[in-house]
Amino acid sequence: MKLSERAERVEPFYAMDFTKRAAELVAAGHRVVTLSVGEPDFGAPPLVREAMRDVMDGRPLPYTPALGIPALRGDIAAFYRERHGVDIDPARIIVTSGASSALLLVLAATTDAGDEVIMADPSYPCNRQLVETFGGRVVAVPTTAGSRFQLDDAAVADAWSPRTTAVMIATPSNPTGTSIPFDELEAICTRARERGVWRIVDEIYLYLSDPAADGTLPRSVLEVDADAIVINSFSKYFGMTGWRLGWAIVPATLVETAQRLATNYFLCASAPGQLAARAAFEPASLAVCEERRCELVERRALVLDGLARLGLAVTVPPDGAFYAYFDVSGTGLDSWTFCERALEVARVSLTPGRDFGTATSATHVRLSYASSREELAEGLARLGDFLDGLRPSGR
Ligand SMILES: Cc1ncc(COP(=O)(O)O)c(C=O)c1O
Predict the structure, then answer these.
(1) Among 281, 315, 333, where does a domain finish?
(2) Which mutation among 13, 96, 100, 230 tests ligand 1's pocket best, with the greatest number of atoms within 8 A of CB?
(3) CATH of the domain at 337
(4) CA–centroid distance, residue 95 to ligand 1 (Å)
(5) Partner of 218 for a Cys bridge, out of 40, 170, 209, 383, CB 3.0 to 4.6 A?
(6) In a domain, 179, yes or no
(7) 392 pLDDT tier (thresholds 50, 70, 90)
(8) Range of the structural domain that residue 344 is part of
(9) Once rounded to an integer, what is the mean pLDDT over residues 297-314?
């Protein structure tokens, strides 16, 4: 029986391969430090867990409306009003099974064969696969430390073509944890809007980014571009990866299409998850999430300091998410071999740059600092021994 060409073309998500190999080593009795997964170790805020217990009281849990339960969509709209000062009609908010389904839905709604979608290289790997699944062409713009590994308006102008239909930006980014300067984001959005092109901005790590020096909180693109498509999730900031819950905010003109696609593709996101997730927006839950963000900042300091001592340069220090993207070229190993050997020799699981594009694929490695401080310290110590073993005098 034949597999579709489309399916054959989808590349593996290498981070998951390394994590799977790490799990096999653990099953074989080895102690492995897993720093390859972008998954905070906190779990859902306590109020959300309680709410889930309450939902499991035997009530029937039928399908919800395809775009999500109105109450949760209302809570999300209220959150944006409070946090960003923007008024969003809850009808424009689509609750999905994680940001992954939101990205799939939005790209299905906007991408035809031959359409070109501009994104940074490096960037989140699944976006490339999704665009290509719908026949689109990824225009991956190589980025550098100079633009914080993010797109800038000049680079977008260079990459532009009559076939450009969307620009995709994740800020802060996976794998670098670096944010795009807000004026640059605004300039890119203005350029794209004036040319009738979609702006798809993934803000899944936005609330895990540092406030500005003057205390200003990170801004959503919706504050300057009311019709940008925003992707977000309960996975990262709210620590609910396995709950599979996220959302998209789309322009009013896209709602009917999104509804049709969501009904056909998913029927709806998890009903109990949606009901319980309302508690995520309670002030007590947001306070817990803020404490966790601060803990991640401490972990980042530990990791940046540890990597610097090992001579593994983090090219641009992250200002959000929980990733450090460091250059291993000084070790004499390419990034893939570095990750393979770090796992087999030091039992530390990392993600090679190959996952995220080609610009930094040979040189860079991603470390997720979403693990406990103890795990991070252990991982860094092991990497130190591993590097000593690579040096001729250490052999
Ligand atoms: C930038 C980015 N977008 C989307 C996702 C998908 O997240 P979710 O768990 O909400 O599907 C991830 C997951 O790592 C991510 O890093």
Answers:
(1) 281
(2) 100
(3) 3.90.1150.10
(4) 14
(5) 209
(6) yes
(7) low
(8) 5-44+285-394
(9) 96
What's the average model confidence in pLDDT over 89-109?
98
pLDDT digits (tens, 9 = 90+) for 116-128: 999 999 999 999 9
pLDDT > 90? residue 136? yes
Dihedral angle computed from the Cα positions of residues 245, 251, 256 and 258, in that order, rounded to the nearest 10 degrees: -30
The pLDDT value recorded for residue 86 is 98
Q: Please say if the pLDDT value at position 395 is more than 70.
A: no
Residues with CB under 6 A from ligand 1: 38, 98-100, 124, 170, 174, 202, 204, 233, 235, 241, 246
Give the position, in ligand 1's atom list, of the atom nearest the Cα of 39: 14
41-60 per-position pLDDT tens digit: 999 999 999 999 999 999 99
Question: Where is the domain boundary, 260, 281, 302?
Answer: 281
Structure confidence at residue 394 (pLDDT): 45
pLDDT band at 33 (very low <50, low <70, confident <90, very high): very high
| Number of structural domains found in the chain | 2
